[in-house]
Amino acid sequence: MSDDPELRVSKIRNGTVIDHISGGQALNVLAIIGIDGTSGEEVSVAMNIPSDRLGKKDIVKVEGRELSQNEVDVLSLIAPAATINIVREFDVAEKHRVERPGRVEGVLECPNRNCITTESEPVDSAFEVLDDGVRCEYCDTIIREDIAAHILVS
Amino acid sequence: MRQDHIISAKQLSRRDIEAVLDRAAEIAADPSAYADRHEGSLLGLLFFEPSTRTKMSFSAAMKRLGGDIVDMGTVESSSVKKGESLADTVRVVEGYADALVLRHPSEGAAQMASEFVDAPLINAGDGAGQHPTQTLLDLYTIRENAGFDDLSIGIMGDLKYGRTVHSLAHALTVFDARQHFVSPESLQLPRSVRYDLHESGAEVREHTDLDDVLSELDVLYVTRIQKERFPDESEYHEVAGEYQIDAATIREHNEDLTVMHPLPRVDEIDHDVDELDGAQYFQQAHNGVPVRMALLDMVLEESR
To answer: Which residues bind L-aspartate (chain B) (predicted)?
Structure first.
């Protein structure tokens, strides 16, 4: 299977493989899981690989890291077709499709500068997930384009 | 009505709205029957923005129910000036009052504040968000003058930032109403309100020229276009001038028109309209007292 795109990056021993990410979104996926390369994780990224299903897809492999539910929730917004494989001792131990959650909390920043969640109040942002975007549960602002640009950087 | 907090017109069903309006009508017919109803109860007023009508009518409503108010005063004179968060402020004031009324310049402030208190909290305006008690008195005025059956209403002016518009538009979706939105393109309804109107299946039309619909309206709800929404003053004058109405226009196109306005007006309704039978904006402002009495009565009853 020399045309298997997954062979372009090395196998990992323990960690997570996120496959079928919409082409060009891999760096946003890394941002969601808080990886910028400075903390030493082994990370492999493949971008814009031909895919039957998506046209072009990205793949991210992270050694020694499993995703939290919150991370999976936001991932689902920017990469709805993604599959998440949890790898243990080189074998796929679990395989998950992402599911669009009903809401996401504390992971996106409201773009409305006049929204109470952007002020210094003890409250996390919360967004209802719509068919074609997300909506702030406090000020009602709807984000449709470029949701990844609103990810809260922790 | 089972409502712990009154945050948005979106949370109100037709039944909820009619229950408040019916109670308000009872109160208006015989205010003395309600005069001692909430003796000993206190309403906490937290107004982080200036207000005349809303604040005074809430005070009048509470006092006419036999209760009293405790007022935070202006932001300048309060602990907010020292940097206290809204979440802390409402938690403190909750201990002083049986119910809270909040006006705040940020959208979503009432929703957030309500998550920190058990006492019922009423949104009296959150930025460009919602103003549900204004909507209830608007609906009361509409019902008294035009009724809700087959209602055709024009809503004109600043539809983008006008919270009274957003609340009213949401509430009208539960009635049999055709809503005509008349505004300059730069001040059309925000995306979130359009989304809700679309989802509700409401009958909605948008216009940039009032003449297109004036003759078919039962009610025209006028709002003020604010100078600060425009980059320069000449543009403001040019645009605002097109969204004004006078008595001659009404007489010519629609004699039976009910004219409403949340006030304050500047020059969007000419003073010569005041003389027409359909000019209801002062009565609309007066209706704020029985409607807020009804709402407070129900909210305080519920929280006992």
So the answer is: 82, 163, 224
Does CATH number 3.20.20.60 belong to domain B9-130+287-303? no
Say which CATH number the domain at A84 has.
3.30.70.140
Q: How large is the average pLDDT for residues B209-237? A: 91
- Which chain B residues are within 8 Å of A139, Cβ to Cβ? 106-108, 127, 129
Give yes or no: residues A72 and A23 share one domain: yes
A138·B87 Cβ contact <8 A: no
Rounded mean pLDDT of chain A? 87
Distances in Å between the alpha carbon of B170 and those of A77, A94, B1, B18, B133? 28, 45, 18, 15, 13
Classify the complex by whether its ipTM is higher than 0.85, answering yes or no.
Answer: yes
- Co-location of A107 and A89 in the same domain: no
Of residues B169 and A67, which shows the higher confidence score?
B169
Contact call for B192 and A116, based on CB within 8 A: no
From A96's Cα to the closest Cα of chain B, the distance in A is 32
Q: Which amino acids of B are annotated as binding site for carbamoyl phosphate, given as ranges?
A: 53-54, 103, 131, 134, 263-264
Same-domain status, A23 and A76: yes
Q: For residue A99, what pLDDT band results from cuts at 50, 70 and 90?
A: confident
- Do A80 and A20 share a domain, yes or no? yes
**Model-level pTM?**
0.88
The answer on A10 and A75 residing in a single domain is: yes
CB–CB contacts below 8 A, A to B: 58
Please name which of A77, A72, A85 lies closest in space to residue A19, comparing C-alpha atoms: A85
Q: Nearest Cβ partner of B108 from A117, A122, A142?
A: A117
> B286 vs chain A: nearest CA distance in angstroms?
29
Based on the structure, what is the number of domains in chain A? 2
Closest residue of chain A to B199, computed from CA coordinates: A130
| Chain A residues whose beta carbon lies within 8 Å of the beta carbon of residue B112 | 116-117, 121, 123, 138
User: Helix, strand, coil shares of chain A as percentages rounded to 5?
Assistant: 20, 35, 45
**Min distance B85 CA to chain A CA atoms (Å):** 6
Q: Tell the residue number behind the tokens 């003389």, with chain if given.
A: B275
Dihedral pair phi/psi, residue B3, rounded to 5°: -135, 115
Whether B104 and A137 lie within 8 Å, measured CB to CB: no
The helix/strand/coil state of B103 is strand
Architecture of domain B133-285: 3-Layer(aba) Sandwich (3.40)
Q: Are residues A86 and A115 in the same domain?
A: no
Domain boundaries defined on chain B:
9-130+287-303, 133-285
Q: Tens of pLDDT along A113-126? A: 999 999 999 999 99
Sheet of A15-22, strand order: A43-51, A55-63, A15-22, A83-88, A91-97
Per the structure, the complete domain to which residue A112 belongs is given by 103-150
What is the full DSSP assignment across B172-186? HTTSSEEEEEE--GG
- Of chain B, the percentage scoring pLDDT greater than 90 comes to 87
